[in-house]
Amino acid sequence: MRLTSAVLRDHVRLAIVGGGSGGSAVAAKFSRILGASNVAVIEPKATHYYQPGFTLVGGGLMKLDSLIRSEESVLPQGVNLIRSKLSRFEPENNKLHFEESPPLAYDYLVIATGVELRYDLIKNLPSALETPGVCSIYLPQYAEKTFKEIQSLQKGNALFTFPNTPIKCAGAPQKICYIAEDYWRRNSVRQNIHISYNTSLGAIFGIPKYAASLMKQVESRGIELNTRTNLIEVDPEKKQATFELLNAEAQPTGKTIVKKYDLLHVGPPCSPVPVLREAASANSPLVDGKGWVKVHPKTLQNETFNNVFGIGDCANTPNAKTAAAISSQFRALEANLTSVIAGKQPVSEYDGYASCPLVINHNQAILAEFNGDGPLETLPIDQSKPRYLAYFLKRYFMPALYWQGLVKGYWKGPKVIRKLLHLGFSK
Hints:
Layout: E1 11-17, H1 21-34, E2 39-42, E3 47-49, H2 54-58, E4 68-70, H3 71-74, E5 80-82, E6 86-90, E7 95-98, E8 104-111, E9 116-117, H4 125-128, E10 134-135, H5 140-152, E11 156-162, H6 172-186, E12 193-199, H7 208-220, E13 224-226, E14 229-235, E15 240-246, E16 252-260, E17 263-265, E18 270-271, H8 274-281, E19 308-310, H9 323-341, E20 354-359, E21 365-371, E22 374-375, H10 388-406, H11 415-421
Parallel strand pairs: 1-2, 1-8, 2-5, 8-19, 10-17, 11-12, 11-17, 12-13
Antiparallel strand pairs: 3-4, 6-7, 7-8, 9-18, 14-15, 15-16, 20-21, 21-22
């Protein structure tokens, strides 16, 4: 039986807050271990999106309707789907509180809330997104709008931005820049359009191997790169974007610069969701000072509450926030939560793996795979080179892997495949 509006029972063995990539994977796996009726997923949203596809929708390379499933269809039959909005964590007493339902007690908790897209942190941006020229591939309706804006632009200034906060899929703001440039070039208007990529970071990408390859794209295609530059305000009437200039530590210098735009694509600032920010305000040991779920970076277990784990974008782990990272985190979380349920200690470690297939045109991509130590590549080739194979994997293989593997609790990242392809000499 699925719960759709109210909590009909007061206790479950495992509660999962969030029904996205990580939450769905955990629900699928542990419904098979504990029994579906002993698992509850708290997720008010009725629609589940394959979010890595939004960039391709924005570039006209995928259709939005191919990325959509109902949340009920993604979760295993018999799991308790609770649509009530969570109002407060009470980890000291193993309880969750809701705005319109009685509390739910749990034995074990997995927090998988993702992040909140904070368009509101940029002055005038929420309203500007409804005006011509301003777009963002991070929400479905604006992903579709992005392609319309790209199609309609014939000349002028195209600005692409990357925020001065953590962000989900950090490669996406530059991917859509490359895809747009390729579209304009193939449609013979590129010579009329000035393109700039404006990032708060000090380099085009954080891993030097891939940064070098991406800089070749930037330079050969005439894209202006502005580092340590952060969007803070949009004036849709004047079609102006205001950026603050940052120092080497990404702190504001007090200087700003105003740029005219005909197309403005915004990579939004991101933060923990409100209920986690409120936990931070209450000084809960569940989270750090900003509201990211406080977990051990390798075991994903909360530092204070041993029966609580975090997975995905909401955790304070240092890895890039991508679906690929979630799949590898899931490998560790599954083993560790199973061990803790059995009364033992965590037995597995997340290796920090993340991946970002950097689409650079309509049929090529750079398949960046890495952790904090540098590249961690699956294929026995140089993945920093643009290839059709990488685009094929991104466009056709990875969506199927997501729907049939990750959210069903089977795909745990490419670690085993990587070792096989590297004859056991890779981590």
